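Q: what sequence does this backbone want?
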């Protein structure tokens, strides 16, 4: 049995392989070849946190996985990452454990980043250049870096807006250090109306921006509303969208923007 910590997982990780198998998993899911258990949600309002327990298996494959992923959103103010967790892999033939992945939430963050990038690549206009990322935490970073890595032929202009301007400015400098073209967004309304791609990465419980700001042809990748009570987009935007796409219909109808 494998027992890997975060550093070991990161050392073994290969972005292109991960992007390929995640894309294949989306295809398998939409084709009805994936079974997943109901998501378990635990909420910790007194500490601004939540925990999700998820499980899945692609039919006729050797392994199924159970994942524990948490988000405690005040952690950064105490010098701690907002996300944490681990994964357990088991044989789909015998039920024996095959791997303990002590990733501290890193695999979840990376998978979410790659998943968002896959959606953006598939659905955004081929001429899209201006990308607004709303949020300044871990997932904002992953969405920017994964999109840039998945579409290296594009020269995206990224703009970062966050409620915490200092955190957003810090993220801008970090991403510039990774050779991305990034600027700080100060006026959210203006940036929403100018952007070709909008990516939302927050734990918000109400719409981040108002009605009628998103121009026709804009692509929106909404990441944050992963449990009951969360919302990032105005309802009118969903009602007026020409196309709505989700990773799993049953979950999206149960919780999230839909």
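A:
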């Amino acid at each position: 049995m494998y027992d890997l910590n975060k550093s070991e997982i990161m050392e073994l990780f290969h972005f292109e392989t991960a992007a390929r198998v995640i894309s294949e998993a989306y295809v398998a899911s939409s084709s009805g070849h994936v079974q997943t258990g109901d998501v378990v949600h635990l909420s910790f309002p007194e500490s601004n946190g939540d925990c999700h327990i998820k499980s899945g298996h692609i039919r006729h494959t050797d392994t199924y996985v159970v994942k524990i992923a948490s988000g405690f959103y005040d952690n950064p103010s105490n010098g701690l990452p907002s996300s944490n967790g681990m994964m357990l892999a088991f044989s789909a033939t015998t039920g024996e454990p095959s791997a303990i992945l002590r990733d501290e939430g890193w695999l979840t963050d990376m998978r979410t980043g790659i998943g968002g990038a896959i959606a953006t690549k598939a659905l955004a206009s081929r001429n899209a250049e201006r990308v607004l990322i709303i949020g300044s935490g871990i997932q904002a970073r992953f969405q920017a870096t994964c999109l840039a890595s998945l579409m290296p032929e594009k020269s995206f202009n990224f703009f970062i807006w966050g409620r915490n301007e200092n955190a957003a400015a810090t993220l801008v400098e970090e991403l510039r250090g990774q050779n991305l073209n990034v600027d700080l967004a100060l006026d959210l309304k203006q940036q929403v109306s100018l952007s070709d791609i909008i990516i939302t990465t927050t734990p918000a419980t109400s719409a981040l921006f108002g009605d009628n700001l998103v121009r026709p042809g804009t692509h929106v990748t909404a990441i944050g509303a992963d449990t009951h009570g969360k919302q990032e987009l105005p309802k009118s935007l969903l009602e007026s969208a020409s196309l709505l796409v989700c990773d799993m219909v049953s979950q999206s109808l149960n919780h999230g923007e839909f």
